[in-house]
Write a structure and sequence with these properties.
The structure holds 2 protein chains of 2 kinds. Chain A is globular, with a radius of gyration of 27 Å. Chain A contains 23 helices and 28 strands. In chain A, helix 2 runs antiparallel to helix 6, helix 6 crosses helix 7 and helix 13 crosses helix 15. Chain A is an alpha/beta fold. The chains are: A alpha/beta, B alpha+beta. At the A-B interface, helix 1, strand 2 and helix 21 of A face helix 2, strand 3 and strand 4 of B.
Amino acid sequence: MAEAHPVGFQWVVEAKKRGATVIHVDPRYTRTSALADIHVPMRAGSDIAFLGALVNHVLSNELWFRDYVLAYTNASFLVREDFGDTEDLDGLFSGFDPEKRTYQTETWQYAGIDVGADEHGEEEKTTKYEQKGTGHQFGSGGAALDPGDAIRDLTLQHPRCIINVLKRHFARYTPEMVEEVCGVPADLFTKVADALTSNSGPDRTGAFVYSVGWTQHSVGVQYIRTAAILQLLLGNMGRPGGGIMAMRGHASIQGSTDIPTLYNLLPGYLPMPHALEHSTLQEYLHLNTPRGGFYGSMPAYLVSLLKAYWGEHAKPSNDFCFDYLPRLTGDHSSYPTVMAQIDGKCKGYFLLGENPAVGHANSKMQRLGLSNLDWLVIRDFSLIESATWWKDGPEIETGECRTEDIGTEVFFLPAAAHTEKAGSFTNTQRLLQWRHQAVEPQGDQRSDLWFIWHLGRLIRDKLAARQPDLGDASLDRPVLDLTWDSPTQGRYDDPDPEAVLREVNGWDAEGKAISGYTDLKDDGSTTCGCWIYCGVYADEVNQAARRKPGGEQDWVASQWGWAWPMNRRILYNRASADPEGRPWSQRKALVWWDETESKWTGGDVPDFAADKNPHYEPPPGAKAADAIGGADPFVMQTDGKGWLYVPSGLTDGPMPTHYEPHESPFRNSLYPQQSNPARQVFSRADNLSNPSPGESGNSDVFPFVVTTYRLTEHHTAGGMSRWLPYLAELQPAMFCEVSPELAQHRGLTHLGWATVVTARAAIEARVLVTERLAPLRVGGRVVHQVGLPYHFGPNGYVTGDAANELLGLALDPNVHIQESKVSSCDIRPGRRPRGPGLLRLVDDYRRRAGVTITTGDTAVTAPKADTTEATST
Amino acid sequence: MTTTSDVAARAGWDEHPPRMGFFTDTSVCIGCKACEVACKEWNGVPDDGYDLLGLSYDNTGSLSANTWRHVAFIEQSKPFGPQTTGIDEAPTGDRDEVRWLMSSDVCKHCTEAGCLDVCPTGALFRTEFGTVVVQQDICNGCGYCIPACPFGVIDRRESDGKAWKCTLCYDRIGEDQTPACAKACPTESIQYGPLDELRERAQGRLDQLVEAGHADAQLYLEDSADGVGGAGAFFLLLDKPEAYGLPPDPVVPTRDVRAMWRHAAAAAGVFAGLGVAAFVGRRR
């Protein structure tokens, strides 16, 4: 966190000064470790084994916060009788279809819920169209299920009670197993477990902070799920000082999922309609609206969004233009799109502040995709590699591509920097903070808002001129009917960003800014561009621009910026009070039920219906917020409970399970199943995999673990730092970090050169030998880890090979993120060959390792297929 | 601190604000180098070359005409106070604990400032805040100041031959603004304020750290009895100054100038006397 989020880390330092214990778990000793109380070096890719052992520690030592867990989680719900756990099925859950590489998830459901008769169920979605990887598409509310009939056992005695299912599932995650799998000594693990549990309970809370070190794995969603289970068991959710913080990768990346650049979501985490499932508004709402929880008001959110998009054209008679929304036809996420480019199906590409030619995994594949386009539009500050690959990219050097054969027409448009435009940033803590423009952009530099708005304007003009007569039947109507009327200002006719923010906020029938999403209607009388942002322009004031200093307000600091939803600083804060509505402790009081006033009150905006009595029980048939009981804090969930076990909504299991990374030098010590069976793999000649033990091929050729990361001094793929002298000089070269032991083992010298090799590529880097990296003992032998920053590329003031050349594409099945935090590799002294020699080197490795197109594509590992197969040398 | 530390009064400022300075608490430095960048941005200091130095994450190396804040990174095989890390449990032999010290160095704005003493043009002067600043429009590039600094801070810029160093953001503090480096520091490792207050705060922080188990924690250049009369920019270090590349017992080279001249005069007198005596003697 200190490395990649130094500004946010100030609060960790402040907490430490006040006595907090800071624990840092990381393969390397980093700038974060330097200030931590406990640093745990572990093998990259083994986090679920570590976190799972913490879960086991909490459960088996009865350290969980019983009153909290019983009341606020689904611990007492019963799982169906035909559910099969990984314990029983060699590392798989029940329902896996090896042909389709997906799970049929009905057996994961709560007992008492008849999936067959429940037309809201996820089952219908995933089987009907065999669409893979729909987890994220359900939005933050998870899948729509009706928990009304679920069977509970509040005595927690029933063996199929979720708490007991969890206990069995995590029983084998012991400190000894942590030592075996993670390379973390048992005594160090115990130290962490003690620190965490002694800092949780009515009087104390602990928080988790993670970033892409957790997400970028073939089982990344389940990493975070394990932390969620732990935090729920310890009562650390919805309470001050608790929670799980996702550090985001850039300014406003949180904003870019709230109002998404993701293909499968609409603003506010509403699912994007599917071409086959959602032909009408009724069908969409019927399938996606849960009965209970705040997503139960999805009709109001969606209709208000359609009104924001299409204004007066959106009417009840035409389903509020629901037909105008684009539809999904499959997985259109980033990597399948690149493959579609290579395969000639995707012909045009916009890159706005993105540098995939060095910044995305399997960079070569990215460049081959770019090379096969008709047109490419790039908006950036400098001539990044994604703008120049066609003349000086690595494939030109090796002779694989020739400039004259690349037909892509490249349009480079300079972008305005954050100082040259106004707008809001939404960061980790869901806080919108307004930035004012400091200076006018220079030359042809323009803001993204300017670009998109004027592009839309020009396209609309062209379409209007082209087809004046087709009327409502025109395919152009969705574009022509858009409300594209933002006022413009300044020398360059920049759309007024505050007007856009007001549109996002929405207004009522009189045109007045709405003050919160509970005022949204499904009858077309309100508009709202993103329901969770509703209220950011309450009282016709840009609430995001508030900057009242912390010293001039209370500790919640509710007048600094504006947090979605409803300016709430801590989500699910009903959980900061006990079921009766009293704070669990005075030390950790946040919101509570005021009996005399009959309302929720406290320091934060209560995340609960303000007048809902703690004893409220929903009447049968109650819907949306009314279906949430008075002691159910997790109001976005359809049952109001924190989910220790996920009955529906995940594609790769209802509970987290340790699987080895897609590429690993080790067999899975916990189960015969080697890696996540539902991970997305792409068996193609341009995406080869290193063999893992137990597979055909020789995994010993790639004996080391490699992980990639950022340095404080650079930003992502370097587009914002390699061209800035003041940053470039601070980390002026691509390097690899290795331990003294590995350096000696492989003959690497400090400041000399090393070549790192995988089945995809070989790159070179300067060597930094450091004791901050240490070998670990895993699976009874020593393993070395290689660290690689991923900021470099051939352009800019400071250059170097891109770490992403080395990485292949194996994706998490829920969110389609690549496993770029861990892979296997080899490292050797010296620079890499130039020209065709580079290809020969990689080919030689592939041959020695026995790599074929099918290497790594095994879904279900055959039990007993153990070590014997990996024999050749 | 009495007359000796009222450097502004000594320099002729009859009415002046309190002496301002930096307290750099290295125990919370996270090595982000925001101070280096903010300094260069505000003061228009040029880049210092793109060299990978291999000094841990330090690719700046030292303070110079083109680097007025320098973050040192020191990797040591010692425990970081009470910290636990599994590094020392590596399976392949003799490993100790590690710690990674980071420290942002800067001009010390000494009470007894050698650079100021030797400057023949008056380009270097003592401000009303007690800081030491170079005026490049007066500097003739003689370079006398360079060997006069016991810390190697001040330096001549190749492009213009003039002497450059930290001004403690003279143009900012005059407007009641915090110097750029302290403003940018996310963890309050660099603190700016009246020197007296900073010294008091530093002592409290030192006591805290020692109690927490940082046995080698110490203040550096806060003592007005040291060889530079105490500094306007002082530090809390977690190891001996040498570990950070700082002189353990810096002495301003001009401290003994008066005595040296006295001795030289005396010696000259003796030589003259001997010469006369010899002449007289020969005559005998």
